[in-house]
Amino acid sequence: VFTDPMTPCGQIIALHFSIPTVFFLRGIPCAVDIHAAQSPDPPSYVPRLFSLNTDHMTFPQRVKNVLISISEFFLCSIVFSPFESLASDFLQKPMTVTQLLSHGSIWLKRTDFVFDYPMPVMPNMIFIGGINCGQKK
After folding, report:
1. Could you read off the pLDDT of 66-101 as tens digits, one per residue?
2. Do residues 71 and 79 lie in contact, with contact meaning Cβ atoms separated by under 8 Å?
3. pTM summary value
4. Which positions make up the signal peptide (predicted)?
């Protein structure tokens, strides 16, 4: 199944039929994609979305980054709770969004190290950031 993990309905169907999943995404709030792929994601190293931090952070920026990561947990539990209940009802077992997306085979990420900060990734995460770049004149 070729699907977008932001709304994990395709992944629910793929798990029900036991078929592999390919995710195509730019990024998911709260780094759910990073946690689902089991990539390391220490808040002291990887800047959070909308924090405006780089990979070279001062101590106050690192503290801010940790506070943002804590607040993301509560925000995303509210945002993704309808999908968790849908997956739990349909698959007949308790599921979180992270557990649901952890069954993805390949993650096609529309980012690039040149434009974004460096981060640790797993081997099944493939960067295809060039498809979003315009032709230089």
Report:
1. 888 888 888 888 989 999 999 999 999 999 999 999
2. no
3. 0.79
4. none
